[in-house]
Amino acid sequence: MAGEPARRAPFTGRSAVGRRSLLRAGLAGLAAPGVATLLQACGGGSSSSGNPSGAETIPAPDNPVRWPLTNDVIKSGLKPERGSTLRVYNYADYLSPRFLKDFEEKYGVDIRLSTFNDADEALTKIASEQLAFDVYFPSYDSLGRLIQADLLRPLNQDYITNRGNLWPRLRDPWYDRGSRYTVPYTVYSTGIGWRTDMIDTDVAGLTNPYDVLWNTQYANNTAVLDDWHTCMAMVLLRNGIYDINTTDPTHIAMVREQLLDMRRTMSPSVTIDMYTELPGKKYGLCQMWSGDAINLPYYLPEKTPVEVLRFWFPENGRGEVDNDLCVCLAQGKNPVAAHFFLNDLLDNQVAETNFAYTGYQPPLLKFTPDSLVADGYVPENLATAVVREKDFDVGFPLLQLPAAADVAWHQVWQEFKAGG
Amino acid sequence: MAESAGPRGARWLWPLLALPGVVWLALLFVAPLYVVVAILFGGVDPILRQPVPVWNPADWDFTQFRYVWDHVVGPQPFFRAALVRTVVYVGLASALCLLVAYPVAYFTARFSGRWKGPLLFALIAPFWISYMMRMLAWVNLLQADGLLNRALSAGGFFDVHTAWLNGRPSTVVLGLVYGYVPYMILPLFAGLDRIPVATLEAARDLGASRWQTFRRVTWPLSRPAVVVSLLVTSLPMLGDYFTNDLLSGSPNTSMIGNLINNSVLTPGQTGQAGAFVMLILLVSVVPMLLYVRSTRTGVDVQS
């Protein structure tokens, strides 16, 4: 399995007219009947063919996709042009500055790093094609749209010599058979983080740990991820619904009810800055990505012991697990340097540098749960934040949603965030 | 000929002087506004859900605007709370700004003497620090073990764990006041400083007390400056979103600026952001009309 939480790009292709009709349907109300109308209006379900042209192609573990080559592949044997500027588009704090500096010195190029907060924002800017980004870090749920819109450059595998360092399962992943467009960057799970000096409850010991985010004892002391799919999927998991990409209107209506209830009773912060705000005591309990949990100790005030930090992810692995990717954008002016950049990300030493800085785990053979703890990258009390390869066998990835469901999910999220 | 050249030259002079302003308005206000309208009433790219502006009004589609409108006044008005909240927050913050700024500006204009220069410098100083940095400073001060809670605990005597940053409307309003009060002080100072001292002395000579002088002379003469300063602060407050993002982060304190920000960054919803912008524009027209009326009154008084 794979997925990519919290950094998510919602969407699915559909005509503007279709979208409007969806919105009209949505006006009837977002309660279950409204959602039902919405979904029926445009149909749900995923396509399974590996080829676009009209129908949506939605990759999934049980529906692997080999994408068509939509742009030219660069020739082999080229070198990055010295003095050129490589434009990298990524989340903030998701690459080590040291790696960027080393790359600049090694290849004689300048790197200009631009950042975004979520995949929605990123796609908006990439789609303008004005910014000429060379390298981008998407989630696999937006991969289909990027390819359909001719925004990606297929990779010349001759340059990706480090692919052998990867976990075997990610050398030919279900979301990109043949690895034609992507290299995996990080793996992560989504769970709950808390501080024992602010939260009395042993969250991991609860029958249903997700319930703690609705425990009014901790009202005004919680946060959830500002990522529509990740946050809403958590509500589904709380209710024992493991299809976290559901198109079922009753499930979406249930998620709506419980999210609005959470907002009303808990007043949570909605943010992706848990890795700084939990150490800063802005709140004591939050939904959290494992990579951010691993990063928490570095943001703790000096006198605060690391032992106060905790992270819970289902012991049986039945939670959200995903991986992020790296791609070359067709709009970039430096495709050769971009290929070298992608390949270097899979280098063991570079991956270690990035992991030490970001806390997000590279899916490379070199890094095992035991070695990460033994080498001091992850303290014992946060060992639950280490992603195990077997978690991908039983965990649940966040997938691209069919257009109608995507609109329905977004409307619920919009209502939640509007605070009305 | 020489006699007629003057009036003819003047006839062209004034429009020429107005030209830069007209061009500025056309390029930086009218054109962008039309882009917003074209996006609001436009379409959506079928793959990436990016907005597709429609320039011809005959082809406009009102779905996005209707969607927003229906969720403001319809049976599921989940946008309404943020709109009401915005008006209340901005109203409160503007009033508090005025309460803080007027005495400061009055003192600086009337009583600071040789300290006027340094005081003005001090008033302008906050502009040198970015708004975001000033807000981030408050995040540190207001967090659970921040300076404010430590001060309130009086050295550990009281057990204070107030969560100032977790969805408190008061924190957002005070953040707005703190962020925008410098913008109010300067126009107020400019207005108050322009009031002729002789006018005030005349009032005192005619037997008016200090309070009467203020109420019957200073305040009426400073009213246009008050209106301007309220506009200068309240209009940007209407579109503010990161004060709430930084000092609360909770949907329970979302303002219309947050709705715009969320919509702009969500593919397929960009047109809705245009609808919110239009709503702000409509709301801002009222204070703008008040301002125009007040300046016309000023002109009438002068003439």
TrEMBL record, chain A:
<dbReference type="InterPro" id="IPR006059">
    <property type="entry name" value="SBP"/>
</dbReference>
<keyword id="KW-0732">Signal</keyword>
<keyword id="KW-0813">Transport</keyword>
<dbReference type="Pfam" id="PF13416">
    <property type="entry name" value="SBP_bac_8"/>
</dbReference>
<protein>
    <submittedName>
        <fullName>Spermidine/putrescine ABC transporter substrate-binding protein</fullName>
    </submittedName>
</protein>
<feature type="region of interest" description="Disordered">
    <location>
        <begin position="43"/>
        <end position="62"/>
    </location>
</feature>
<keyword id="KW-0574">Periplasm</keyword>
<dbReference type="InterPro" id="IPR001188">
    <property type="entry name" value="Sperm_putr-bd"/>
</dbReference>
UniProtKB/TrEMBL annotation, chain B:
<dbReference type="Pfam" id="PF00528">
    <property type="entry name" value="BPD_transp_1"/>
</dbReference>
<feature type="transmembrane region" description="Helical">
    <location>
        <begin position="12"/>
        <end position="41"/>
    </location>
</feature>
<comment type="similarity">
    <text>Belongs to the binding-protein-dependent transport system permease family. CysTW subfamily.</text>
</comment>
<protein>
    <submittedName>
        <fullName>ABC transporter permease</fullName>
    </submittedName>
</protein>
<keyword id="KW-0472">Membrane</keyword>
<feature type="transmembrane region" description="Helical">
    <location>
        <begin position="273"/>
        <end position="292"/>
    </location>
</feature>
<feature type="transmembrane region" description="Helical">
    <location>
        <begin position="119"/>
        <end position="139"/>
    </location>
</feature>
<keyword id="KW-0812">Transmembrane</keyword>
<dbReference type="InterPro" id="IPR000515">
    <property type="entry name" value="MetI-like"/>
</dbReference>
<feature type="transmembrane region" description="Helical">
    <location>
        <begin position="172"/>
        <end position="192"/>
    </location>
</feature>
<dbReference type="InterPro" id="IPR035906">
    <property type="entry name" value="MetI-like_sf"/>
</dbReference>
<feature type="transmembrane region" description="Helical">
    <location>
        <begin position="225"/>
        <end position="243"/>
    </location>
</feature>
<feature type="transmembrane region" description="Helical">
    <location>
        <begin position="87"/>
        <end position="107"/>
    </location>
</feature>
<feature type="domain" description="ABC transmembrane type-1">
    <location>
        <begin position="83"/>
        <end position="291"/>
    </location>
</feature>
<keyword id="KW-1133">Transmembrane helix</keyword>
<keyword id="KW-0813">Transport</keyword>
<keyword id="KW-1003">Cell membrane</keyword>
